Amino acid sequence: MARIVFDLDGTLIDSAPDIQAVANATLAGIDKAPLSLAETRSFIGNGAPTFVRRMIAARDVDEALFDGLLAEFKTRYVDAVELTVVFDGVREALDALRRAGHSLGICTNKPIAPTHSVLAHLKMDGLFDAVIGGDSLPVHKPDAAPLQAALEALNSDAAPIYVGDSEVDAQTAVNAAVPFVFYTGGYHKTPLDSIPKQASFDHHTDMVRAIEGLL
Ligand SMILES: O=C(O)COP(=O)(O)O
Ligand SMILES: [Mg+2]
Predict the structure, then answer these.
(1) Which residues are responsible for catalysis (predicted)?
(2) Closest ligand, as measured to the CA of 47
(3) Share of residues in the chain with pLDDT > 70 (%)
(4) I need a surface site. Which of 11, 50, 93, 157 has the fewest CB within 10 A?
């Protein structure tokens, strides 16, 4: 039995196309060129405010527009679910982990409103007993507090594990002193070797094995 907390974007779901569409609708409103999918992926990981800061820096937007653009971005983001897909093998892996008696949670830097809407859209909202978003607390990852809050909400003494796709997730796990399982195929920016981890997997068909190997 373990308490297993997952990152969301780039770990369980490929949400970059929806985030790209939100960014580009926001940029179109101020006559700026759209972001490519690669740019979008490279801006994801530190939450919506950092995403918007990176976006406006990349398109030479006046920083005075930041507050308004962030508000618009977050409003559009709530309904941005149609282009997002669950990575192959994720549903089967989550079902197997639940059947084995583990309790599951989410700790993401995605704002909590779009987190709830995309989980509901994908019919995954019943799988997790704790869901913490990037604006659920006054601090976000890599601060340890959101991961600790998700683990505490799972409400047991079982061993904790965090599963994520980025250097931000790895640092969060280090800060919380929680073992980290790394998915290599998500949105990480730094070289694989530089990411501290206790286990890793390249395909979600190997996710359960990577997690249970640590127990
Ligand atoms: O929204 C973000 O910037 C990142 O989201 P994640 O923490 O689920 O990877
Ligand atoms: Mg991620």
Answers:
(1) 7 (nucleophile)
(2) 1
(3) 100
(4) 157
Q: Answer yes or no: is 9 a known binding residue.
A: yes
Q: Among 1.10.1740.10, 3.40.50.12780, 3.40.50.1000, 3.40.50.20, name the CATH number for the domain at 2-14+83-212.
A: 3.40.50.1000
Q: Which residues contact 111 (CB under 8 A, 6 or more apart)?
A: 47, 48, 74, 77, 133, 134, 135
Residue 196's pLDDT is: 97
Residues of the chain with CATH 1.10.150.240: 16-77
Strands 159-164 and 180-183 turn out to be parallel
Taking the CA of 188 as reference, the closest ligand is 2
ipTM: 0.95
- Give the integer Cα–Cα distance in Å for 101 and 120: 23
Domain with CATH 3.40.50.1000 in the chain: 2-14+83-212
Report the CATH architecture of 16-77.
Orthogonal Bundle (1.10)
169 is in an annotated binding site: no
Expressed in angstroms, the distance from the first to the final Cα of the chain is 8
Q: What pTM was computed for the model?
A: 0.97
Residues with C-beta atoms within 5 A of ion ligand 2:
7, 9-10, 165-166
- Residue tagged 């308004």 (tokens): 68
Across-strand partners of 131?
106
* Pairwise CA distance, residues 138 & 46, whole Å: 14
